[in-house]
Amino acid sequence: MEKNNLKINSQAILEEKILNWNSVQQSFEKSFGSEIYTSWLKNINLLREYNDHVILGVKTRFFRDWITSRYADKILSELKKHKISINRLEFKIEPDESDKKTVFSNTTDNRITDIKDSTLNYNRLNPNLNFENFIVGKSNNLGFLSAKKICLEQSRYNPLFLYGGVGLGKTHLLNAIGLKLKENNKVMFISAERFMYQFVKSIKKNEMVNFKDFFRKANVFIIDDIQFIRGKEALQEEFFHTFNSLFDQSSQIIISSDRPPNKLDRVQERIKSRLSGGLVVDIGIPDYELKIKILRKKISDYQNSFKENPELQEEVINYIAKSSNSNIRELIGIFNRVVAFGKMSKKPLNVGECKLILKDIQNSNKVISIDKIQTVTSNFYSISLSEMLSPRRSRPLARPRQIAMYLAKKLTSRSLPEIGRKFANRDHTTVIHAVKTVDKISQNNEEVRKNIEEIKSLILSD
Q: Contact 264/257 with Cβ under 8 angstroms?
């Protein structure tokens, strides 16, 4: 009788609708988003399918626990769209053959060492980036004092959050803190990008326990460019728990970013709240006095390194300081260019010669706004700005509008959605289409190409 019942049940199962797992996976990606899907759901396998439930295979216990605690209800909801009778999920840990060899071999220590060694490759502090050679001015004085204070009174301000544009000295200060504290503390200094690399690598190699242990044992945890975690949900989850673990054990946390915590879009609110809970310090663009101090230090370094004088006239030093409007890295690049040209010409350069050498930099330093691009473009084609921004799609209006979008993409650092909003709240896909269209037309149409160059020249001119 039991055998007959089993046969009947088996036939019933076979007669039920069979799940198309590829189709299910596609719906997962659409519903959860590519970030979560790639990190957590992509490698789920369908092991067994019954009338009212399914058995899904995952590689590790960590994967199973993470998925069931965060995504199980939504996974079940998606499966019901494909087979309405399903009302229960079961997960089974099924490592693949390579994972089985790793898990059951006698090389556990080797696996732990592998994580440590690979991480230490990105944990090397630069001895040249210390407090002694950090040049202080009004724009970075508070950041410098805060970094020094942390070295004396750890965990008083936790976390210390330094933010500012590229090339302003944030990494220098983080490195200096690490150098100062490494003798008596276990210091971890890593970029957010490398933190993610280790995170993904540890998931693939089933080493998440080792990953967690390694990063959470630090007395001083320094992470650079935290804005890199924007939009990466799985990484944000791990960072949040790492942060909490370190904070609870009174480890000092130091973080840098290109923007303040409240401006980190696509970052979980609870993370932004944590980052804002300590001391948040802005490092600003260097003023003229600080740039002069930096240039004099570079001249001194040059003399010590090459045993010769770069022979820069005082007015040239002042001109270099005024030529850079953004960051220290650019300032040093300008200095190196002027010195190199002076060496090639075998004579000290005057300001007029420097202007010729730095002509491209002067143009790139001009702040170009989308408003200016729109105004110049509409004037060039003798149409009003309101007409160019209107919904009308006639050729006399559409082409100037597309060219203005194209130039906004090429001449500004604005994102596609930002550009779209400036063009009467158009979608970013409209901007993409405009850029591609103008690119294609300008390759084949000499007149359009000349018009674009002329408009660009008008925009860049004073």
A: yes
